[in-house]
Write a structure and sequence with these properties.
Helices cover 28% and strands 33% of the residues. Strands 4, 5, 6, 7, 8, 9 and 10 form a seven-stranded mixed sheet that branches. A two-stranded antiparallel sheet has the order 1-2.
Length: 249
């Protein structure tokens, strides 16, 4: 690694609020994933990595502890650290970009309600469309498949409509489906916005992923014919499971 690269790595580590050993674990994981460090080869020594990244030997060891716990590396006394496997990525969780896709629940997925609050005011919504309802029902939900959580959602539903949704629907239907199935409700504006972020402590804990791991933030909005914002659904997807496929032609 060049002196310039060493400096830029050290500067980047200082800019982020995420712990340096977690940032380095992500950096090293990418090097394994893209083949820079191939399976079966020996990695640079702790001392070499510390010098390259501008951190202490202890910080490097902490990052390697994470990779070893994931089964990506093995460390041998007097021999060094060897790459044993690449990260496994099963990108089965597709974020749909069409209306019909937003109404379909994922096969074999379970929805758990973590909290349920009634008659609350809608928090700030960036790029809000429509007028806020007088009050909302707020549900925090966790979606899992085969025992592994892949999505956290905060669903805000117009309180005046919440009673028209069967209670079992809150644990079986997608957020958009909750309002789409309400009789006599016509949705005239529905939007979806995706951004990329990093998992904070609560999100990392709820989704069982490392702190600072990439997550996909998806915001969904629905407005009825009266111009009322009847639904806001903020979703946090595990970045290692998500894919987006858009048909262009």
């Amino acid at each position: 690694m060049s002196d310039t690269a060493e400096v830029s790595t050290a500067q980047a580590l200082r800019k982020s609020p995420v712990a340096r050993y977690i940032q380095l674990a992500s950096l090293f994981r990418r090097r394994i994933d893209n083949g820079e460090w191939e399976v079966g080869t020996r990695m640079p020594t702790v001392e070499e990595l510390a010098a390259q990244c501008g951190v202490s030997n202890m910080t490097i060891r902490q990052s390697l502890d994470i990779l070893e716990g994931e089964g990506l590396i093995e460390r041998y006394r007097a021999k060094g650290t060897f790459v044993t496997s690449r990260p496994k990525r099963d990108l089965w969780c597709e974020v749909h970009t069409d209306w019909s896709g937003l109404l379909i629940a994922r096969e074999n997925a379970e929805i758990e309600i973590l909290s349920d609050k009634r008659d609350i005011e809608l928090p700030f919504v960036e790029d809000q469309v429509g007028e806020a309802a007088p009050a909302y029902r707020h549900l925090r939900r966790r979606h899992s498949r085969d025992g592994s959580a892949f999505l956290l959602t905060d669903v805000y539903l117009d309180e005046r409509l919440a009673g028209q949704v069967p209670e079992e629907a809150y644990t079986t239907k997608t957020a958009m489906r909750l309002v789409a199935d309400i009789p006599d409700v016509k949705i005239v504006d529905a939007r979806q916005v995706m951004t990329i972020g990093m998992a904070d402590l609560e999100t990392a804990t709820r989704l069982n992923i490392p702190l600072g791991e990439p997550i996909a933030k998806v915001k969904r909005l629905a407005v009825d014919e009266a111009g009322t914002l009847i639904l806001v659904a903020n979703g946090l997807y595990r970045g290692d499971l998500v894919k987006i496929a858009v048909k262009l032609r």
